[in-house]
Write a sequence for this structure.
């Protein structure tokens, strides 16, 4: 891999059996393509350039929210809300006082 100018990746990929291309692991991580079934969009331009873009079910900067750990915490919070295990406060000061208690 080389990092040149404004390009983060420049290198060569080789076709394997059945037309499979294997991207380097560092590039797969940046594309959020570590999960089997992850997709990329490929566009062939008239000038012969192929553009490859990750297709994400959610924006990349929100990837943390969709991790299994975070989703488990969301389910826990939803269960607490449904069971009425919540507190409301009239002001930020009341909230902070409750945290200190």
């Amino acid at each position: 891999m080389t990092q040149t100018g404004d390009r983060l990746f420049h290198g060569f990929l080789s076709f394997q059996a059945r037309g499979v291309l294997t991207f380097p692991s560092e590039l797969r991580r940046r594309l959020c393509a570590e999960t089997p079934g992850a997709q990329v969009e490929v566009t062939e331009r008239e000038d012969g350039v192929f553009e490859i873009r990750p297709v994400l079910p959610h924006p990349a900067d929100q990837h943390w929210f969709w991790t299994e750990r975070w989703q488990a915490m969301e389910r826990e919070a939803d269960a607490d809300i449904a069971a009425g295990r919540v507190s409301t406060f009239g002001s930020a000061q009341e909230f902070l006082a409750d945290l200190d208690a």
Observations:
- The chain has two domains: 2-55, 67-100.
- The helical segments are 25-30, 68-82, 92-100.
- The chain is about 30% helix and 20% strand.
- The longest strand covers residues 39-44.
